[in-house]
Known about the structure:
The chain is α/β, with parallel strands linked by helices. It folds into 2 domains: 110-329, Alpha-Beta Complex (Spore Coat Polysaccharide Biosynthesis Protein SpsA, Chain A), CATH 3.90.550; 340-433. The protein is 41% helix and 11% strand. The protein has helices at 2-32, 49-55, 89-104, 121-134, 150-157, 180-184, 197-200, 220-224, 250-253, 273-278, 292-303, 311-321, 347-352, 370-381, 388-400, 407-410, 413-431, and strands at residues 110-116, 139-145, 166-171, 206-210, 214-216, 236-240, 264-272, 326-328, 356-358. It starts with a helix and ends with a helix. It catalyses: 3-O-(beta-D-glucosyl)-L-seryl-[EGF-like domain protein] + UDP-alpha-D-xylose = 3-O-[alpha-D-xylosyl-(1->3)-beta-D-glucosyl]-L-seryl-[EGF-like domain protein] + UDP + H(+). Its EC number is 2.4.2.42. Residues 1-24 form the signal peptide. It is a single-pass type II membrane protein. This is Glucoside xylosyltransferase 1.
Amino acid sequence: MRRFARVALLCLGCAVCSLLYGLGQLALSLEQEPGGGGRQRQARDPATPGARRRAGSAGRGEAATGRCKNLSVSFWNSYWMLPSDVCGMNCFWEAAFRYDYMKTHPSEKMHLAVVACGERLEETVTMLRSAIIFSIKPLHFHIFAEDQLHESFKDILDEFPYEGKVNYTLYPITFPSESAAEWKKLFKPCASQRLFLPLILKNVDSLLYVDTDILFLRPVDDIWSFLSKFNSTQIAAMAPEHEEPRIGWYNRFARHPYYGVTGINSGVMLMNMTRIRRKYFKNDMTPVRLQWGEILMPLLKKYKLNITWGDQDLLNIMFFHNPESLYVFPCQWNYRPDHCIYGSNCKAAEEEGIFILHGNRGVYHDDKQPTFRAVYEAIKNYSFGDDLMHSLLQPLEQELQKTTHTYCGRVYKVFIKQLTKSIRDLYARRSKGR
């Protein structure tokens, strides 16, 4: 019996060694496969020299060396595929723990991107102000703007009281040279720039993209935390286009595939860009799966006569074919006029308030929806350092009470419910020295 036990123990040891060797070889082979990603020269962010000088370290990516130690750079995925320039076998072993690590150790810096063209300077600055007021972790703004807007952005942003928590980088509007004209005229000028962010910001792991007409009524940290809720297949998060199918646009009028019952709205889009760059997407153009940079132009060529809302429609088509890749967050994270002009239909906002206000259709600048305009004007006119209760919340509530003749005004309390909580939480953090 004793001899039998020794033989069994020896066999078990040999089996373990063989398994370890096999796994090691598998890791090395995955690095060389197309899915593992070959070594590519990192593109430099196209920031202007002046913007680099003012932003300090803004616009610079994570260091290329030692990335195994920074587990926030890459996420584990179900295929165990990591970029070949991350590291070798060690990353293979660490990848198994990376997914759980990210759930408890989110990135310390939050990256927020916006695209501004035409008369959107003031609107963009107001959005950035709302992000700064309540956010806790450091912010890095990636601002894509027409060249004539760069100096104005610099002049305004350099006067913001950053307190060491905010950096920014300015970028020109850029599209692939061979198809730039088509992308520029898609929907609105510059709107489709967002589709190319994963290809331009190659050193950014995760990013929150927002339209210029967004206002944050609670910390950016809270929507950023959805990254830790992604499962192993999800690469992005957006909210539904509508809550009520009877007034939905996609389910009534769309001439192309769209996600879910009512489609998705891309005005607030949280992206794990490492996963986006790595993923091979199913599509209805070829049986071969295509990567992000390969699928955009063929998709536009096939559907350009059938799409109405430009890049948002293309995103709907992509996630229709890859529904497992999308995380859907509730409507109060992207609250638009459609949620109240036909009667209140965002139940989550009624219960908890509005978290992110989206003033599409130009409602911040006309008198059609005075409730939305009142919130915009309150944040635009707020001076950093003033008492938020007396300088922002109380005057805003007085203005909102004047809008009760409108459908949105009848539920005006949902516009300040979360804002009130955000202000109280901010003062509580300050009292504790945080």
